[in-house]
Amino acid sequence: MQRLISEASLNHFFGVLLMSQILQSLHKTLLAGLVLLIAIVLIAGAVSGSPIQLTPVWWSFFFRWLHITCGVMWIGLLWYFNFVQIPSMPKIPDEQKPAISKVIAPAALFWFRWAALATVVTGLVVAGLQGYLHAALRLQIGFAAIGIGMWLALIMAFNVWFIIWPNQQKALGIVAAAPKAKAAAARLAMLTSRTNTMLSIPYGQKIHPSQFPEKYQSFD
User: Fold this and answer.
1) Which one of 28, 87, 157, 177 has the largest count of C-beta atoms within 10 Å of its C-beta?
2) What is the value of pTM for the model shown?
3) Rounded to whole angstroms, what are the CA distances from 69 to 89, 119, 142, 194?
4) In this predicted structure, what is the pLDDT of residue 220?
5) Which long-range contacts (CB under 8 A, 24 or more apart) does 30-37 make?
6) Which DSSP letter does residue 104 get?
7) Residue 66 contacts by C-beta under 8 Å, 6 or more apart in sequence?
8) Strands, DSSP E only, in the chain?
9) Residue 90 and residue 78: Cα distance in Å, rounded?
10) pLDDT in tens, 52-78
11) Widest CA span of the chain, in angstroms?
């Protein structure tokens, strides 16, 4: 009995040690998450009797997963900027602000803008694979709801790449600008980010129904 307890304790120790080594590295954590996803898909396929096949249905699943994952990162960072970083900046002492403006903000903006682009691209791929791309973009009967969601995403991504990012480059000193131009750029970037936050609320309602074709006729 004592031996069994010691072996269980040892296994627990090595299990905790292995997990701590994985979780201390972001890349290893992401790889572990990907391995877990693959395992779940394989198990689900085996249980349901539908193993993975490179059919349009599976490609649709793959790009849908990418679309949702990228969307979570995009909107998550958008809300981080508006709920955490922007309201907190006036409370931070001036000597500590470079930690945000020179390190954290540029890194967050990198993932923010590329997640926006990836969300749009993968969403368009999903719509193409499921056969409703043109109908949704033209807001045809039966596709108006998802079409509105797609247009909201396109508007928000345009704001990210052509308004927020260029002005943030000036505001953060990545691109040289006079003090007045810097302040104006920071304000425009903030207002545009707030606009995207407002649009993200109806957009969030539209991103989910796109995965269920029978549902996106609610406006018709």
Assistant:
1) 157
2) 0.84
3) 28, 8, 26, 22
4) 46
5) 37/65
6) I
7) 118, 122
8) none
9) 19
10) 777 888 889 899 999 999 999 999 999
11) 76
Cβ contacts of 216 within 8 Å, gap of 6 or more: 132, 142, 143, 145, 146, 209, 210
Reference 212, options 156, 141, 145, 155; nearest CA is 145
The Cα 69–Cα 64 span in angstroms is: 8
202 contacts 75 by C-beta, under 8 angstroms: no
From the list 73, 66, 60, 75, the residue with the least C-alpha distance to 206 is: 75
SS3 state of residue 193: helix
Cβ-based neighbour number of residue 58 at 10 Å: 15
Cβ-Cβ contacts under 8 Å for 202 (sequence gap 6 or more): 148, 149, 152
Asked if 78 and 200 count as a contact pair (C-beta separation under 8 A), the reply is: yes
Structure-block tokens of residue 83: 């709920």
Report how far residue 28's alpha carbon sits from residue 26's, in angstroms, rounded to the nearest whole number. 5
Q: What is the pLDDT of residues 95-106, one digit of tens each?
A: 999 999 999 999
CA dihedral for 18, 19, 20, 21, sign (positive or negative):
positive
